[in-house]
Amino acid sequence: MRGLAPLMLPVALLAAGVAVLVPGPATTASRVAQHILSLTIQLLASASAAALAWQAARTYGPRDRERAVWFGLTAAAALWTAGLILYGAAEWSGRARPYPSSADVAFAGAVVVLALALVGEWRAVAAMLRPGERRALLLGGVALAAVVVAGVLWPIALTPMDPLEKALDLFYPLAGLLLVPLGLAPAVAFRGGAAGGVWTMLAVGVFSLGVGSVGFAYLTWFDLYTDVHPVNLLRIGGFACIGAAAAWHRRASEAI
Amino acid sequence: MTAGLTRAQAAQAVATARAAPPLYRDLRPAFAGLEALVTLLRRRGFSGLVAAVGRAGEGAVWVQHGHLRGGWLLPRDRPEVLQWDDPVEVLRRLWTDEEAVVTVYPASPAAIPALTPPRSAPARAAPGATPGTSGAPPAPVAPPVRAPAAPVDRAPAAVPATPVPSPPVTALPWAALLGGVIAAAQRHRGARAARRLEDLANAILNPEAIVTHGALHGTVSRSRGEAALAALVRALDELAGRRFTDRLLARLGAELECAEALAAVRERAT
To answer: I need a labelling partner for B166 at 20 to 30 A (CA). Which of A83, A161, B21, B98 fits?
Structure first.
């Protein structure tokens, strides 16, 4: 049971997200409470992922290459948390439409830093992958992105709208999904070991964030997105997976 | 196909190699793929002899640092010695018989006979051996039976002709140390990482010993053991980080009561 303790927080956050976002609000008061709780749980999910990734990074020495990878994941989750705070502030200050906003600088920065961290890990493990596996991962990522572009993003790309909003609507989902193969590469390279499980969970988290971003882009295009929409469960789940992966990684590294 | 070796020479070379305990015994083509075996020996940087007996006859192929260096086939019903430019052809012929018995013997890379090119026939057989019937004319420039003579000092009863510079010392529990590092890599970074470490270790340990699935077979001298462990430490630094490696070495040092020796190996590896 003690081994499962680090996983408790991410699991609890995901459960809380389900409890808050799935049932429809009945009264105005409960609707307000749902908004507050939804934002709070999203904040806690990304902030706890940042804290757990920080702890995972500290299991490495100063010259270890994976230290930079886990610090990158820490920075990405922390930037996302900062973005959520800015988004919440814009929304609660009464702006009619807090998207795109200054929060997107932090959100986009988080995606870029996440990409840098995963590219760093890819470069380290690429030599351990067979050529066929490398090809399959890259083609899988491209195929996934192509399906999403054809099914969801192409109509958005053709719609006349604010160029910044359109760019962000395309950037978040595409970047998120193209990062999935980078997260899966170490899972394949370390298959059979604890690190293989860790990176599988992390790849699931990245996939969840990517699919959440597809939903976000689709919903904002139809003006249907709110911060209490169940699609936010995918982002809560994504960060819960990243946090759980970091906790698992720390535990596996320390318990030799 | 060429014929440049007498049966007696071939038989003597194989007999010498067979004095060593086999690494793999009783392999059968029915369940052991030729491609897989050759790939494994190449990846391990193996040196020694692959001997096979089947309906086609008796075959032998020498491997040096993982590369096939030469071989021959002694057909069951004919007196000549058959050799091919591609030594794997010997094994291919024997692999057609599913019940052929294949045995792999380790040997020192320095003891591998110079079999390439096999075209010039040796002038005479080893002392006491029956002259062969290859029919090749005596070649005045051919080396005097260099190939089979080299490994003679590996026979159990023979006294080594020259002093061994670093006699086998088992001051450290190499099996537990090397196995412990590889097992930790397997647990934490998976089977592929463990195989990489095994390949690294085997390239250094061969032919004294070999590590397969984390288990050490053979006797390891101190110099090779230390070199192999230092190589594993460096590789694990890369794979899992220095702090992980330090924790692992501290645990192994405490468990096996060799913390100081491991600290020295760690320093060498850094």
So the answer is: B21
Chain A nearest-CA residue for B180 = A256
Alpha helices in A93-222 (DSSP H): 103-125, 131-148, 154-158, 163-178, 180-189, 194-221
**Which has more confidence, B75 or B167?**
B75
Which residue is associated with the tokens 């996934």?
A144
* Chain A positions with Cβ closer than 8 Å to B: 59-61, 63-67, 128, 189-196, 252-254, 256
**Crossing angle for the helix pair B222-240 and B174-205, nearest 10 degrees?**
90
Cβ pair A61:B241 closer than 8 A:
yes
Do the chains contact at B251 and A194, CB–CB below 8 Å? no
Q: Does B188 touch chain A (CB under 8 A)?
A: yes
Candidate from A53-67, A76-90, B147-161, B236-250 with smallest mean pLDDT? B147-161
Q: Which two tokens stand for residue A2?
A: 């003690």
Residue type, A162: D
- Residue extents of the structural domains in chain A: 2-254
Please state, in angstroms and rounded to a whole number, the distance separating the CA atoms of residues A239 and A245: 10
In 3D space, the residue among B105, B90, B95 whose CA is nearest the CA of residue B34 turns out to be B95
Mutate to test the interface with A, among B244, B262, B270 (most CBs of A within 10 A): B244
Q: Does the distance separating the beta carbons of A191 and B191 come in below 8 Å? A: yes
What pLDDT is stored for residue A2 in this prediction? 54
Residues A141-176 have pLDDT tens digits of 999 999 999 988 998 889 888 899 999 999 999 999
Average pLDDT of chain B, as a whole number? 74
Tell whether the model's pLDDT for residue B47 goes beyond 50.
yes
- Structure tokens, A137: 């991962």
Spatial separation of the C-alpha atoms in residues B29 and B53, rounded to whole Å: 11
Residue B118: per-residue pLDDT: 45
Residue B227 to residues A32, A152, B77, B231: CA-CA distances in angstroms? 67, 57, 48, 6
Q: Is B242 in Cβ contact with A192 (below 8 Å)?
A: no
